[in-house]
């Protein structure tokens, strides 16, 4: 196992996210962690754009935690940026279908942030991936929304689900970033954190 992961695992790691995708990605990275979420109103100032939104929300979630010297809290957020605006989580099937129709046949950016909080530090970073969709038919959108109910996903889709399998034509950047956790960036943040402790 990587010495970086070994050293990080000496801390009590808390993942501040209920996302099953983030949990499985962290497990694959080799991290030992527990899951704990804090209620936070995910509201951000109107003037923020792209990665500013993702970082603001990840830090907002991290700041809700009290952390001792032996703990590291990991929080994150994902923003789908399209037509100069952020697509959040759809409130209902109508909104989900509208979002997917707007993404159909075009490219958009997925920006996933991560924030590490220790007793005395806050380290934030993010990754950007460009995702291209084919022209999605109405029946494909209808089938996906009705069967997969993507109401917990920014932009109304999960790249690892059916719509990603049949609809995504190209990805420029990290696949894991689109799933919700920029693994390369989080690894670099671990290295930065450990260096600051030497």
TrEMBL record:
Keywords: Cytoplasm, Hydrolase, Nucleotide metabolism. GO terms for cellular component: cytoplasm. InterPro entries: ITPase-like_fam, Maf-like. Its EC number is 3.6.1.9. It is found in: Cytoplasm. The keyword Lyase does not apply. GO terms for biological process: nucleotide metabolic process. Signal peptide: none annotated. The keyword Cytoplasm applies. Belongs to the Maf family. YhdE subfamily. PANTHER family: BIFUNCTIONAL DTTP/UTP PYROPHOSPHATASE/METHYLTRANSFERASE PROTEIN-RELATED, BIFUNCTIONAL DTTP_UTP PYROPHOSPHATASE_METHYLTRANSFERASE PROTEIN-RELATED. HAMAP family: Maf. Nucleoside triphosphate pyrophosphatase that hydrolyzes dTTP and UTP. May have a dual role in cell division arrest and in preventing the incorporation of modified nucleotides into cellular nucleic acids. This is dTTP/UTP pyrophosphatase.
